[in-house]
Structures are given as structure tokens and as C-alpha cells.
Amino acid sequence: MTTHSPLRRRGQSDGHSRQQSEKSQQSDQEEKTSLSTVSNGTQTPEPPSPDDDSIMAPNLTLPDRSGASKVNNLQVQPVSAIHMRRPSVPMMPPFMVSAPGKVIVYGEHAVVHGKAAIAASISLRSYLHVTFLSKSRRTVTLRFPDISLDHTWNIDDLPWAAFSHPKKKKYYYDLVTSLDPDLVAAMQPFIACVSTKLPESDRRIHQSSASAFLYLFLSLGSQKSAPCIYTLRSTIPIGAGLGSSATIAVCLSAALLLQIRALSGPHPDQPPQECGLQIERINRWAFVGEMCIHGNPSGVDNTVSAGGKAVLFKRADYNKPPVVIPLRNFPELPLLLVNTRQSRSTATEVAKVANLKAAHPRITENLLDSIDHVTESAHDLITSPDFDPTHPAALQHLGELITINHGLLVSLGVSHPKLERIRELIDHTGIGWTKLTGAGGGGCAITILKPQPPVRTPPSISTIESDEDDCEIDSAVSEPPTTHNILDTLEIALEAEGFEKFETTLAGDGVGVLWPAVLHNGNEEDGGEEIDQEKFLRAEGNEGIERLVGVASSRRRIAKEVREGWKFWRT
Ligand SMILES: Nc1ncnc2c1ncn2[C@@H]1O[C@H](COP(=O)(O)OP(=O)(O)OP(=O)(O)O)[C@@H](O)[C@H]1O
Ligand SMILES: C[C@@](O)(CCO)CC(=O)[O-]
């Protein structure tokens, strides 16, 4: 925990209690309790006290009649209002959490049916900013600008009675493996009123994100929950197979668990086992959020997003936690990631496979088993003692498995003409092995790149027509091409057809915490730069988000160096 909180400049002590009563003369004691949430505490703290809603945020949004002005549709408190505040009123700083997207290297869809999958986190991430409001507000707001969702609920109106009923109540440590239909029904009126004026397809996106939030908020919080604004921005394309929904679920779960003090750390000297416990706790509730967004998830996406790195994942019995084997020596595979920009819903693609299985049980089961064998073969190779990812034979083996896995996914009916086109463009260059990743039906393709430039001269990409027979080799290319210039040419061809290439590194950190939302970027006043909601919303595009709050250090010399301030549970 930093000792340079901007709050100190505003007359607050070092701790960041989320529940310092205006009246309380015992704030020191409270602060110590609260600190254990994110510092050295190893025990789960006491539940919040009834005074929990007495939280003041640094950037209050006040009603217009107070003289507040509007910036970007946000109400900004005038300086006079800050000065009018009683100096003894404690303020709670905003904080942030972040979670990475993922690629499934082998085993998507089969993993929903109890087979194994291998997946790794990527450097694209979602960022959730939590701003505390004055206790008098009694509202909770979701501000998800990526999907233009902005919705506010009155905390007191929410169906707390249903969620806290003794027969229904779930606690932060519970394993919840299915959504409770009664609770979903109780929540429904509060979801149905979200973005009612939008067309059906957009409304569905808004309502699924809102339901993930509300189910977690109602399960983990209480009517005393602090009024807050939850602002989320992501650098992950939505519905592209990179686990965007899981990152939302992980961020919400982590933020809400931190708020009820059900997590300890993260801090650098936290024992790995204890870190694992915190990740597990976040992951369990993230899975609940995932269920709200896409119905029947295997849990692989949220597991990788919460824990980071790379894993072998298998959930044979949905009533039990999954088997998760960390792949500590997961190779830094030379990977190309291409987005079709064809959005689709994971729920729909998962349902397609379920329908196929119902119509052709034996054939579908055989296809799923074959995918399982692919994953197993890759796992055996990667974990063998003499595995060398730079050895051409090893890459060849992993590459062939990629090709086989894609073929099986095509047979399951979850590819898309645009994915096939990407594969065709890449196959013609001979630079690697390509498959769809994630749910398919659009979304992204991954290519494992070959170590050496191909010996044959590649075609000029412009001559590759959709029909293979029309493909011509451009003999004008006389110099032997390097992988580098083939990739450049390929990128141009992909862009010309509306596809998008991503740079990413694999197997980085999982969920991260920035508490308070202060970063030491080197160019700020003493104590760090406070990231308030307006700044976060104003950051332009993915680059702006990365520059302002990105977990990757801007001066990083090694791929996974993280920015000072962000903390992670590392196992
Ligand atoms: N940046 C975001 N802001 C708000 N909601 C988001 C965001 N990203 C994803 N979501 C939610 O997640 C849903 C997309 O989830 P879906 O599972 O279909 O795709 P994905 O997670 O990107 O892909 P896959 O599951 O194949 O990896 C959206 O409809 C939306 O509800
Ligand atoms: C298609 C699928 O296997 C992967 C989505 O990223 C669904 C899941 O595992 O939940």
C-alpha cells in the first residue's frame, strides 16, 4: 500500500477505511481494520458496520443545485463545495482493479463438455474504476462506455430481501455453481429497465453486463453497501474470443470482494498459497458473473483471467471446482492474433455445439474426444522435461495440433467464412499454423509462427483469391523473404480485408489492484497522480487507457515488467 495517498493532502490519515463515520472518534481503529483488505492482513476482516455508507469520495458528484458543473456529462464538484465540507469528514479514495483477456490455445468448446483445455492470459486487459459517493446518494451506477451503458439503481429499492433470505444467502466463501432462478427472477425487474430504448441486440448486451454486476452486488453486498460508481473500460475487443466477458466478471468480483474486505493483499511478500486463496475466491464469484453473461461457461476464461499465466483446465463435474494445473513453463510462443471483427455471442456458439450433440451424439462426442486428445498431446509435450519451444520439431508438433484442432472446430460448426479467409491468407504465406480461438463464429484466429522463414517463395498476397484454384505465385519476388517482411505484407493484406492484427504477449499477471487509484508516472506532483473517474473516461482509445492506467510499465525492458502501484496475487 502506498503511503502517498492523495487523501493525506486533504487531511486524511494513511489508511483507507471504507467506512469512517462522520461521528466516529475511533477512525484510527477503523482504518487499521480496513487496511487489512489490501495490505498485510491474512484474515478475512469483519463485515462492514452499519455506518458503512458514510463514505465520501474525493470527486463527489453533487446535485446541480449545489453549483456543480458538467464535464463530459459528469458532474464535477466546484472548489467551493470542497471547501465547505467539514474538515473532519473522511473521504474514500477511488480504487481500480484490472483483469487480462485470454487465448485458448487448445480445447475450446470441448472444455464446456468436461474435456481439457489449454489457455493463457494476454496483455490486453479490462480496467474497472470504483468511485465512492456521499452516503446521502444511496445509488449505485454502472458506467460502461465501451458499450455505452450508463445505468443507476437506487440501492434501497433493490431486492435485498430475496438475496439475504436465510435459504438463499450466499457468502463470499461459497462455491456457487448455478444461478438461483428465484434470485434471477427477483433481479429481473431491475434488469428489464436497463436501456429499454435500445434495439434488442444492444439491449441484450447491456442487460447481460448489468445482470453480472447486479447478481454479484446483491450476493456480496448488503443494503448498507456504499454508494459507488463502477466505471469500466477495456482494451479487449468484445465478443472476439478473447474472454472480454470473463474480464468484466473478474473485475466486478474482485472489486466487490475488496469492498466487503473478503480479500487480503495483494502485497509483495504474501505467501503464494495465500495468494492462491484470494484468486480462488475472486474466481468463484467471477464464474457467477460469467454465468449471467453467457449461460453455460466452462469457467476456463475467468480462471485464466483471475490467475493469469497459462493453465490446463478441466471441469468434469460442474458441482465441484475445476481442475486447474498451472503451466509454469508455458513457452513464449511466437503468436499472431487476428480479429475478424465479426462479433458474435459465446452463448450462441456454445448452444450450437449443444444442439449438434443432441442431434448427433456419438459423432459429436467423438469430435470432442479428439479435441481432448489434441490438448493432451500438447500438454504432454509442453510438460516433458526436454521440451524446447525453439526447436523446430517441437513447434511443428504444436503447430500440427493447432491445424487439427481447427479442423475439429470446423466440424463442430463454429467457424465462420471470415475465419476461413484469415486462415487461407496465412496458410498461403506458409508462416505458421492457424486456428480460431474462443467461441468462434467470428472473433479471433491465432497463428503459431514457424521459427524459420519458409523456403518457398510466398505469393504476393493480393493474388490470393478466395477460391484456392485462383491462387497464383508472384514470381517477381526475387529476394528470399524473411518472416518479418512476410508478416508486414500479410498485415497489409489482412487490413485491406477489414481484419485487425493484435500484438500481445502471453501468460502475464492475472487480476491486479491499484488501491488507491494513484500512479507514480514520474511527471506528477509529490505523492503521485490520482486517477479520478473523469480522467479515466477521457483517456483516448486503447493507447490512452494504457498510458493512463495500464499495468504494463511504460519503460519496461522485459515484457512482463509492471507499473509501480499495481499489485498482483502471485502464486
Ligand atoms: N468492455 C466491456 N464493457 C461492458 N461489457 C462488456 C465489455 N466486454 C464484454 N462485455 C460483456 O460481455 C459480453 C461478451 O461476451 P462473450 O462471451 O460473448 O464474448 P467474449 O467473452 O469476448 O468471447 P469468448 O467468450 O469467446 O472469449 C458482452 O455482450 C457484454 O455483455
Ligand atoms: C467456447 C468456450 O469454450 C470458450 C470461450 O472463450 C466457452 C467456455 O469455455 O465457456
From TrEMBL:
<feature type="compositionally biased region" description="Polar residues">
    <location>
        <begin position="35"/>
        <end position="44"/>
    </location>
</feature>
<keyword id="KW-0444">Lipid biosynthesis</keyword>
<feature type="domain" description="GHMP kinase N-terminal">
    <location>
        <begin position="229"/>
        <end position="304"/>
    </location>
</feature>
<keyword id="KW-1207">Sterol metabolism</keyword>
<keyword id="KW-0752">Steroid biosynthesis</keyword>
<dbReference type="GO" id="GO:0006696">
    <property type="term" value="P:ergosterol biosynthetic process"/>
</dbReference>
<dbReference type="InterPro" id="IPR006205">
    <property type="entry name" value="Mev_gal_kin"/>
</dbReference>
<feature type="region of interest" description="Disordered">
    <location>
        <begin position="1"/>
        <end position="72"/>
    </location>
</feature>
<keyword id="KW-0460">Magnesium</keyword>
<feature type="compositionally biased region" description="Basic and acidic residues">
    <location>
        <begin position="11"/>
        <end position="21"/>
    </location>
</feature>
<keyword id="KW-0756">Sterol biosynthesis</keyword>
<comment type="similarity">
    <text>Belongs to the GHMP kinase family. Mevalonate kinase subfamily.</text>
</comment>
<dbReference type="Pfam" id="PF08544">
    <property type="entry name" value="GHMP_kinases_C"/>
</dbReference>
<dbReference type="InterPro" id="IPR014721">
    <property type="entry name" value="Ribsml_uS5_D2-typ_fold_subgr"/>
</dbReference>
<dbReference type="GO" id="GO:0004496">
    <property type="term" value="F:mevalonate kinase activity"/>
</dbReference>
<feature type="compositionally biased region" description="Basic residues">
    <location>
        <begin position="1"/>
        <end position="10"/>
    </location>
</feature>
<dbReference type="InterPro" id="IPR013750">
    <property type="entry name" value="GHMP_kinase_C_dom"/>
</dbReference>
<keyword id="KW-0418">Kinase</keyword>
<comment type="pathway">
    <text>Isoprenoid biosynthesis; isopentenyl diphosphate biosynthesis via mevalonate pathway; isopentenyl diphosphate from (R)-mevalonate: step 1/3.</text>
</comment>
<protein>
    <recommendedName>
        <fullName>Mevalonate kinase</fullName>
        <ecNumber>2.7.1.36</ecNumber>
    </recommendedName>
</protein>
<keyword id="KW-0067">ATP-binding</keyword>
<feature type="domain" description="GHMP kinase C-terminal">
    <location>
        <begin position="396"/>
        <end position="452"/>
    </location>
</feature>
<dbReference type="InterPro" id="IPR036554">
    <property type="entry name" value="GHMP_kinase_C_sf"/>
</dbReference>
<dbReference type="Pfam" id="PF00288">
    <property type="entry name" value="GHMP_kinases_N"/>
</dbReference>
<dbReference type="GO" id="GO:0005524">
    <property type="term" value="F:ATP binding"/>
</dbReference>
<dbReference type="GO" id="GO:0005829">
    <property type="term" value="C:cytosol"/>
</dbReference>
<dbReference type="InterPro" id="IPR006203">
    <property type="entry name" value="GHMP_knse_ATP-bd_CS"/>
</dbReference>
<dbReference type="InterPro" id="IPR020568">
    <property type="entry name" value="Ribosomal_Su5_D2-typ_SF"/>
</dbReference>
<keyword id="KW-0443">Lipid metabolism</keyword>
<keyword id="KW-0808">Transferase</keyword>
<keyword id="KW-0753">Steroid metabolism</keyword>
<keyword id="KW-0547">Nucleotide-binding</keyword>
<dbReference type="GO" id="GO:0019287">
    <property type="term" value="P:isopentenyl diphosphate biosynthetic process, mevalonate pathway"/>
</dbReference>
<dbReference type="InterPro" id="IPR006204">
    <property type="entry name" value="GHMP_kinase_N_dom"/>
</dbReference>
<comment type="function">
    <text>Mevalonate kinase; part of the second module of ergosterol biosynthesis pathway that includes the middle steps of the pathway. The second module is carried out in the vacuole and involves the formation of farnesyl diphosphate, which is also an important intermediate in the biosynthesis of ubiquinone, dolichol, heme and prenylated proteins.</text>
</comment>
<keyword id="KW-0963">Cytoplasm</keyword>
